[in-house]
Amino acid sequence: MKTKLSITAFFAILFMFSAFKGNAQVHVGLYHEGVLSHIGVGTDPEKKIFGEARVLAGGVINPFMGVEALGHYNFRQTDWYNLHGGLMLGYSEITDVQAGLPFGLSFKPIANHRQFSLLLEGTPMYGSYEFTFRALIGLRYTLSKEN
User: Fold this and answer.
1) Which UniProt keyword terms apply here (predicted)?
2) How do residues 7-33 score in pLDDT, each as one tens digit?
3) How far apart are CA 120 and CA 105, in angstroms?
C-alpha cells in the first residue's frame, strides 16, 4: 500500500512539473542529509518564486524511499547568492506524510558560471507525530540558462 502511494505521489509531482512551458529553464540537484540522499528537479531558481520535486533515494544503511514537493520564494537575490524560504510537503516510508518550512542559501561561487550553486538548507519539519530539524547540503545546476 505504501509503495503504491509513493509511486502515485511521484507521478503526480512529475505531472505538475510537465505543465510548465517547454522552454522553461530547469535545475537539477543532488543533496545529502546524513544517511539519506535527495535528487531534485525544479523550475528556474533565479525567479522570485520557484518549485522543486525531490526523490529521497534510499541506500544500504537507510533503504527507505520518498517524494517531496517544495515551493520556494527568493527573499534576497544577488550575483553571488540567493536566500530563499518556502513550504515542503512530502511522503516517505519512514514518516508517512511530512510538512516543513525550508530556509536555504544558494551560493554561486564561480563568477562566470552562475548556473552552478552550492545549496545549504535547514528545514524544521513535522512528521510521524513529532517535530524534527533537517539540514541539507548539495549541488544544484540550472540547465538551458539564457546568456
Assistant:
1) Signal
2) 555 555 555 555 444 556 899 999 998
3) 5
